[in-house]
Structure formats: structure tokens, C-alpha cells
Recover the amino acids of this structure.
């Protein structure tokens, strides 16, 4: 075994996709596998998602989609963060569908279509209240009109109309209904301009909306974090999702120290008695946040142990008391909780963050092992 491993249960991913599809019968399912499959590994998790019934995959960046194509993934792909200078020609040539929320980008995609001799499939994004990507107000009508012009020229095909929620993970937030209303207005404008029909996919539902907002599912759901077994709305429970990742490490050193021993940088932890300390070869370079100092717990020797002292770049320490510990013993940072270990949600709560941030920050020195 490697000093540290992120063990990924691909059957959990498949099962989670199948469960999420039950929330939107008859709709397509695009699984978002951006950020290296939320830290779980891009290609293996993408394949598992397709085995679980996903009909499409989504990535933030074109380079992620091209990696999937290079790995032999032939399913429809959509990429949506496209600053100037991105490899549009490669994307169009590889049948990667592209999002556009501005007229300059529609023009650039049409140019790539002309250079490659291929029709580019484009999803027009409306900004319905998130104030990130997408066109809002009068810009939406201009975007639709420009896209329809290029469609008439045979350069692009409008394949989708979409938006994204700002607060779907906050049940009852007033922005939810407001955004749905704006999106419906945007769809009506697009339909009037001719950018509608059974071949144009309407989509807005992220993981939280997929699980809690039936009115937001339209023609396709677009789950991300839930696919990996992590609840997008923790206060409402786990929805029957199965966490896919277990993060483990092996003890690099165990030693007895006397009472009053300062531990790690800054001596933020001082032993109260003679005790056994264990050195764990993971640190903030691997995604164990420095903020976990004296906060987060791990499972070692059958019991939970608090991280003792400052998390360093490559290592942290646990205090075992008088319990036995030896080099090579396995320590579980988080998992599904079935062995008594902390869950990823518990880690997120103790660090004041969300599960998304923790899994996507696990670095490349941590081997991904697929079960």
C-alpha cells in the first residue's frame, strides 16, 4: 500500500447515479465530473457514471472534456467555462458541446466550426440570478438572435438552453422561485426566436435541485457532488446516497513522549501526560487543511483521535494515549462511517466548509485506488 490512498468505491458511484435518475424519470442525466471527478479521478468515475445510467457528462473546462475523449469516452460532453484562447477547434472536432453566454463566444465557436468543417453544438446559458456566467436581461435576446443567425448559416446548432442555481442548497430560499421564473421567461424568448423544440435540452437542476425541486428538472438533471455520495443539503439527510471515497494513511512513526511535550509547529498542542504520538504522512499539500489543527478527528486503533497540533505540509500528528500504535498501522481520516470513522460531512462541519472543497483538494501524491 502507498503511504496514503483515496479508496474510491465505483459501485457506490454507479448506485448513486441510478438513485438520482429515479428523481427525474424520462429526463436525461448529465453527471458533472469536473475537477478530476470531484477529486475521485476523472476517467474511472466518468466510466462508472455511464455504467450507472448517465446519458451525458459535463466538465467545467474543455481540457477536461478532451481528456475524456482521449480516454475513449464517446458519450455526449458539455464544457461551460470558456475564456478567450481555449482550444475551440479541438473541442468542435472532438464533438464536445460548448456553452455560450455571450455573443463574442458564439461568434468564436462559429469560427471554430468553419475551420473544422463541423457543426458546433451549443448550449446557451442564461444568467437567472447567480451573476456568474450567462447572459441576462437584454443580453439574452441578443445572444439568442446571434446564435440563431449562425444556426441559419449552418455553423452551429442550438442544442441546449440552461442556467444554474445560486441557492438550491438552501431550502426555501426566495431566490429559487425567482430564478425559475426568470429561466422560464428566458425559455419563452428563445422559443419565440426559434431556439426551441424537442431537440433542444432545457436544464437547470444541480444536485440539490435534483433531489429537492421537482419543478427544476426540465429535460435533464445535472448532478455533481451527490453522485459521489455526498449530500448537497446535509440538513435534510443523506437521501440514501453512498459516499464513494475513503481516505486512509499508514503511520510513518510511533513514539512515546513525556508529559509537557510540545507537538508540531508553534506547539499549539502540548501533551498532558506521557503518551504515544503517531506521525501520519499527509498534510496540507495533500488536501488536509491546516485549519484541521486541533479540530478534525481520524480513526486509529479502533477509536477516534483528534489531530494533535499544527497540520504541516506533509504530515500531522495524533495522540494515542496509552493505546498501542505501530509503524504501518492504518489510519482512516474519513469514510462512510461504517467502521466508526468520521464521515466527510463531519470533517466539513468541523472545518466550517463543504464536502466539495475537501475532496477536490486531495492532491496528486495521494494515490487513487478503485474498488
Amino acid at each position: 500500500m502507498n503511504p496514503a490512498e483515496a479508496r474510491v468505491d465505483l459501485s457506490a458511484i454507479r448506485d448513486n447515479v441510478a438513485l438520482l435518475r429515479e428523481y427525474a424519470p424520462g429526463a436525461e442525466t448529465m453527471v458533472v465530473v469536473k475537477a478530476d471527478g470531484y477529486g475521485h479521478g476523472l476517467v474511472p468515475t466518468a466510466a462508472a457514471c455511464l455504467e450507472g445510467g448517465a446519458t451525458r457528462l459535463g466538465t467545467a473546462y474543455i481540457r477536461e472534456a478532451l481528456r475524456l475523449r482521449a480516454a475513449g469516452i464517446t458519450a455526449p460532453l458539455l464544457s461551460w467555462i470558456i475564456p478567450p484562447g481555449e482550444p475551440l477547434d479541438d473541442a468542435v472536432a472532438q464533438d464536445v458541446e460548448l456553452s455560450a453566454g455571450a455573443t463574442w463566444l458564439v461568434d468564436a465557436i462559429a469560427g471554430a466550426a468553419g475551420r473544422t468543417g463541423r457543426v458546433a453544438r451549443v448550449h446557451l446559458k442564461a444568467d437567472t440570478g447567480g451573476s456568474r456566467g450567462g447572459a441576462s436581461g437584454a443580453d439574452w435576446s441578443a445572444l439568442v438572435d446571434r446564435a440563431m443567425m449562425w444556426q441559419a448559416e449552418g455553423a452551429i446548432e442550438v442544442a441546449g438552453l440552461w442556467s444554474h442555481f445560486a441557492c438550491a442548497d438552501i431550502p426555501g430560499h426566495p431566490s429559487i422561485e425567482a430564478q425559475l421564473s426568470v429561466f422560464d421567461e428566458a425559455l419563452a424568448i428563445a422559443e419565440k426566436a426559434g431556439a426551441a423544440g424537442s431537440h433542444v435540452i432545457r436544464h437547470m437542476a444541480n444536485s440539490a435541485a435534483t433531489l429537492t425541486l421537482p419543478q427544476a428538472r426540465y429535460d435533464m438533471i445535472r448532478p455533481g457532488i451527490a453522485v459521489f455520495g455526498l449530500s448537497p443539503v446535509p440538513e435534510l439527510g443523506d437521501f440514501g446516497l453512498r459516499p464513494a471515497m475513503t481516505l486512509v494513511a499508514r503511520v510513518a512513526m510511533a513514539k512515546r513522549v513525556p508529559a509537557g511535550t510540545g507537538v508540531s509547529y508553534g506547539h499549539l498542542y502540548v501533551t498532558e501526560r506521557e503518551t504515544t504520538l503517531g506521525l501520519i504522512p499527509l498534510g496540507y499539500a495533500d488536501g488536509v487543511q491546516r485549519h484541521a489543527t486541533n479540530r478534525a478527528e481520524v480513526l486509529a486503533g479502533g477509536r477516534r483521535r483528534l489531530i494533535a497540533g499544527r497540520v504541516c505540509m506533509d504530515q500531522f500528528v495524533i495522540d494515542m494515549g496509552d493505546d498501542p500504535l505501530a509503524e504501518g498501522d492504518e489510519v482512516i481520516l474519513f469514510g462512510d462511517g461504517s467502521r466508526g470513522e468520521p464521515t466527510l460531512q463531519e470533517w466539513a462541519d468541523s472545518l466550517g466548509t463543504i464536502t466539495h472543497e475537501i475532496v477536490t483538494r486531495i492532491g496528486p501524491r495521494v494515490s487513487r485506488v478503485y474498488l
The domain at 10-228 is CATH 3.20.20.10 (TIM Barrel). The first strand starts at residue 4 and ends at 8. The chain has eleven helices and 19 strands. The first helix runs from residue 10 to 21.
